Amino acid sequence: MATTTTTTPPQAPSYPNQVTGMYILARALRLLGIDAMYGLVGIPVTDFAYLVQEEGIRFVGFRHEQQAGMAAATHGYLTRTPGVLLTVSSLGFLNGLTATANATVNCYPMIQISGSSEREPIDLNQGNYEALDQLSIAKPLVKAAYRVNRPEDIPTALVRAYRSAISGRPGGVYLDITTPCLGAVMDKAEADKLFFTPVDMCPSMPPAPEAVDRAMELIAGAKKPVILIGKGAAYACVEGQLKELVEKTGIPYLPMSMAKGVLPDGGPLSALSCRSTVMSQADVVVLAGARLNWLLSRGHGKWSPDTKFVQLDIAPEEIDCNRPIAAPVIGDLTSILNAMIERLPDYKMSMDPQWVPSLQAETKTKAVKFAERLDAAKSASPMNHWTALGAIKPVMDANPDVILVNEGANTLDDTRDTLEMTMPRHRIDCATWAIMGMGMGSAIGAAVATGKSVVAIEGDSAFGFSGMDFSTICRFKLPVTVVIFNNGGIYNGIGVNLSNNGDPAPTTLDVNARYDKLGEAFGAKSYYVTTPEELSAALTEAIASKAPAMIDVQLAADSGKESGHIGYLNPESLQHITV
Ligand code: ADP
Ligand code: MG
To answer: How far apart, in whole angstroms, are the C-alpha atoms of residue 513 and residue 503?
Structure first.
């Protein structure tokens, strides 16, 4: 019988009065207040991760770098400090970079730190272990990218990365640290002199007073104004200012997906269910941390050509990008909204007295129709998306402080429509790129960053991209419940293979897959549910447990349509393939 042996964890070289680049990096992170790092170790960063833990920084080790990156991005979004991702060279770097690029597109602050192999053989293309010119690859996809070759440059490089990630328009930053730099040895006394406390890492950027006046003028003269709240406002934590502005002016508001809950979805001035009416009828729309991108038809489509826009944003280059903006106000949202509120007493609103009541009447009618839809789905067996959401809604309503992570196609669209949010920054989803594969990472980042419970509502296809990192939820014993809507496919499980060769269709997955067994494999409390009653009981128990849980929700294979609400984005000639 083999005797039990204990293995010593790898240790960074220890010299009496000397330290390595890795030590300097770990120290510098700690001194900047970084308290969590997400990543996946290997050559050349394994020892560094040990040092990170030794510094008292929480290291959350993942199964796939992309998910670690999604976690870092979500951490950044929820804390307004950079989430930090650690990757190994070459493929690990590339896997992580997808999340850093996605963070940049979404304006989430994060720093990807990657080990990279020594420069000389890369530059001469001589074929070295995991050789890749990582800095050049990262550059076009991130807000800023830096390489550190010397240990004495590490503290400065990290401060620059930190500033780039959170100041101005937030985004992803890449920090390339070469293997020789990580291992380079310095006198500790010299190294300690390198650290400094940076001043004002995210300076406030007050708007020009004349820009505020121009905007106020337009708003005050509007007959049918609306404030369109984006996730930039959620990020900026301006719910207090927006509440005051809305209450003092009586202007209704419409949230973008992740801005749901900045002001309550169900509030009397919420125009959440009147999107088309707002687009076609509002004469002045205030974009508060929202971009006029594809999610808003780039300012065309249903929008009235006469609508005038006021845009409150930190990024001047955003203005006029799709449609002329009548009143741009550039600055940070806190300063902008404070300035607007301060100027309010000087303006008299001229809102049409029928505008709000007409939106409220429409909201009422739509709410009745929606309730009827959920009601009609109650008895469907097997369940469809609406049956399941009808069961989930009261449970989520009873747990308003649970953070919702949501991805999929129909699962995304229908969940967004069904679940009302009452608290800011409690909804994290596929966001600007409408990507799949953010679920487990985002759920982990949200749980670690906030300590709150998380429910991730996932399409079965969406879950597949990140499913293995359910094991990370379990290893770190996070209060995350994963709910999988299993309809056996991408969009649905009834795709047809046009060749009849017996293979599944491109959209077909497995409607009989038992995801609850996957949960069990990692020790989570797991449920397989086939009725709304079972689902509601399982979700209630799972949230209350504050422990990892997995709920496999059995749906009908024909529940859900191709591409959910955005099927119109497909080339028309392809639309016949799935039913
Ligand atoms: P949504 O998808 O909800 O419309 P976007 O990510 O498209 O949100 O837009 C967010 C906008 O908010 C971006 O244009 C970004 O520059 C802006 N933004 C982010 N942080 C701030 C801030 N602190 N102050 C002002 N604008 C901000
Ligand atoms: Mg599906």
So the answer is: 17
Q: Hey, what are 527's tokens?
A: 């449920």
What is the Å distance from ligand 2's center to 492 Cα?
A: 5
Distance of alpha carbon 208 from alpha carbon 38, whole angstroms = 39
Query: Residue 236 CA: which ligand 1 atom is closest?
Result: 23
- Phi and psi for 456 in degrees, rounded to 5? -105, 115
Q: How many CB atoms lie within 10 A of CB 176?
A: 25
CA-nearest residue, atom 20 of ligand 1: 232
What spacing in Å lies between the alpha carbon of 331 and ligand 1's midpoint? 11
8-state DSSP, 405: E
Residue 171, both tokens = 């985004």
- For the CA atoms of 186, 192, 194, 200, the dihedral, rounded to the nearest 10 degrees, stands at 150
Nearest CA-CA partner of 285 in 306, 256, 310:
310
- List pocket residues of ligand 1, CB cut-off 6 Å: 106-107, 169-170, 230-232, 235-236, 256, 258-259, 289-291, 293, 295, 313-315, 318, 332-333, 432
Q: What is the pLDDT along the chain (579 residues), one digit of tens a residue?
A: 444 445 555 555 556 799 999 999 999 999 999 999 999 999 999 999 999 999 999 999 999 999 999 999 999 999 999 999 999 999 999 999 999 999 999 999 999 999 999 999 999 999 999 999 999 999 999 999 999 999 999 999 999 999 999 999 999 999 999 999 999 999 999 999 999 999 999 999 999 999 999 999 999 999 999 999 999 999 999 999 999 999 999 999 999 999 999 999 999 999 999 999 999 999 999 999 999 999 999 999 999 999 999 999 999 999 999 999 999 999 999 999 999 999 999 999 999 999 999 999 999 999 999 999 999 999 999 999 999 999 999 999 999 999 999 999 999 999 999 999 999 999 999 999 999 999 999 999 999 999 999 999 999 999 999 999 999 999 999 999 999 999 999 999 999 999 989 999 999 999 999 999 999 999 999 999 999 999 999 999 999 999 999 999 999 999 998 888 888 888 865 555 443
Report the C-alpha gap between 194 and 201 in whole angstroms. Answer: 18
